[in-house]
Each structure stands twice: as C-alpha cells, then as structure tokens.
Design brief:
Layout (H helix, E strand, L loop, with lengths): L1 E2 L3 E2 L1 H8 L2 E3 L2 E4 L2 E3 L12 E2 H8 L3 E4 L4 E4 L17 E3 L5 E3 L17
Antiparallel strand pairs: 1-8, 2-6, 3-4, 4-5, 7-8, 9-10
Length: 115
C-alpha cells in the first residue's frame, strides 16, 4: 500500500489491504488482532505507524518522494530495515563484486536459479 500520509480512513485501509477495523481490533478473514485505542485518531483515521507495529507489517519511507509503503503482514517476520546484508559474488567478467559497493544507492536485486 503506497501512502502520502500516515493517517488513513478505515474504509480505505479495508479496500487496499483487506484489514477491517472492528471493535475487537484489526480483522482479516478469521484473524483479529486487538488494537490499542491510540491506533485511531480523534478524527477517526487510522495511525499507520502504530498499526504497522501492532500487525508486524513493514513500513518504509521514501523521503525524496514523500511516500510511505506499508507492506503485507508478515507473521512477525518483517524486515527491520531496507538494508540488505553484504555479500560478494563474481560479476559478469569473473571479478569479485560486493553489494556494499553500492551503499547509498537504490538497488534492485534480481535472482534466478535453474532448479
């Protein structure tokens, strides 16, 4: 879910993620997660930062674009950052290449396996 603000109406949250805010908490299918009252603002909007923490959903901010991305629920296995661990592999010429050489740049990793 791409966001421009961290306050979202409950109906938009339901439409875009499948999570419905009910008196018993945030519910999706047969799963309901109790929520603290502070997740809902005085205007009835949902505080996405608090919701993401409670549902263990990754929340990433792209400051330059002014956007946030709320990832899918992860069963408490969300990444704590968008920083990949360093590794070294041969490049297309057979020379060693370290991922850390691209630190500070946006990188898309594409992997493939023959099996």
């Amino acid at each position: 879910m791409i966001l421009e603000t961290l306050k979202v109406a409950p109906d938009e949250l339901l439409r875009r993620t499948g999570w419905e805010i009910k008196p018993q908490g945030a519910c999706k299918a047969e799963i309901c997660v109790p929520l603290p009252e502070s997740v809902t603002t005085s205007g009835g909007l949902i505080d996405i930062e608090k919701l993401a923490r409670r549902l263990a959903m990754p929340l990433v901010h792209e400051e330059a674009a002014g956007l946030w991305s709320l990832g899918p629920e992860s069963g408490a296995k969300a990444l704590t950052s968008a920083t990949a661990p360093d590794f070294e592999l041969p490049d297309w010429k057979g020379q060693p290449f370290r991922l850390s050489s691209l630190r500070g740049k946006k990188v898309l990793l594409v992997t493939w396996a023959s099996w």
